[in-house]
Known about the structure:
The chain is built from 17 helices and 12 strands. It is an alpha/beta fold and about 400 residues long. The strands form 2 sheets. A 6-stranded parallel beta sheet has the order 3-2-1-4-5-6. Strands 8-7-9-10-12-11 form a 6-stranded parallel beta sheet, with helices on both faces. The longest helix has 17 residues, at about 140-160. It is about 40% helix and about 15% strand. The protein has helices spanning about 1-5, 15-20, 25-35, 65-70, 85-90, 105-110, 120-130, 140-160, 170-180, 190-200, 220-230, 240-245, 250-255, 275-280, 310-315, 325-335, 375-385; strands spanning about 10-15, 35-40, 55, 75-80, 100-105, 115-120, 185, 210, 235-240, 265-270, 320-325, 345-350.
Amino acid sequence: EEIKKAKKPLLICGGGVRYSGAEKEMGEFCEKFNIPIGETQAGKGLVSWEHPLNLGGIGVTGGKAANVIAKDADLVIAVGSRLTDFTTASKWLFPNAQTLSINVCDFDAVKSDSVAIVADAKEALSAITAELQDYKSQYKDEIAVAKAEYKKIVDDLYSAQSPDGLVQTTAFGIINEFMGENDVAVGSSGSLPGDLQRLFRPKNPRTYHVEYGFSNMGYEVNAALGAKLAWPKSDVYSFCGDGGYIMAHSELFTAVQEKAKIVVCLFDNSGWGCIENLQNNQGTDTFGTVFAERNSSTNQLDGPRLQVDFAKNAESYGAKGYTVRTGDELKAALEDAKKQTVPVLIDIKVVPKTMSEGFESWWRVGVAEVSKSHRVAECYKDMQANIAKTRDY
């Protein structure tokens, strides 16, 4: 009944679709009733990037297409999604939509005042499809227009240039386009999960593995080893920041020990870039997020940038290391890495702050109510203005 009333429904494809094995049922459901799809991190890749109804990532780390369509949706059908802060953009993204939630966990099914269906995704989608019959959404060309616009945005980010060096999104695109159909992408923390959810184009439903429940720094290398052990015939590419690598990379030693060839694509932007942006966006000056030496004059961490040779670090374990500063060098390293039989680390020196940015979304992050800083005061006002736009459930 809720779907029948809806003119512009939107389906959120969550991890439950993957765990249920409900890709086929979800695809048939959306195609039959002309319902567009927004992907969470756990649900990404189950529908082809090229599918006309797939709008890509949704929420804080989502893309423009899904988030624009979400704002006009009158029904959100959340399938196997926990409706987290990132997916709902802190309860800001769906201003006018009723939520219908299919989930095996009743705690998640009732979130956002949902009409709750506590059931397996595959079983529920099959049953609803059989009951609904002649329903069609009232979308005209909105889905195609949003998808075409966003495809161009991604193409532009994949070819972005900077006089200062290699742009992160360009390096990211080179790796994505180089990867084979059954190669696995692994990611976890920093700005790269945003790039992955917004920009990555999976070529196979089972090749996208991004843990973003708690942005676990250091998960990237050990998860890549786990993926390789689980799917040994495929190459596994770990998308890892320099900060995440420093936090935990000891499984690189284990990968060498087990002769498990993984390819660690380390994006070196000389700092904790994601956290720095978050600080700056809340009105705070950069604080301990740039990899710089202690300055004897100021006693602050604002001295020369630390020059870290991550390739040499990997080689000390017995892995093969590359250092690249240009797109051509990255392509050559990827080609040579295919010939290797030991784990590989590619140290990619990218320009800081050249990651992808958010689209049509907001994330509620605490800002000090009282501060001597004018910038912090302005950010607090902005936070309050956005809180007023959020839904009360």
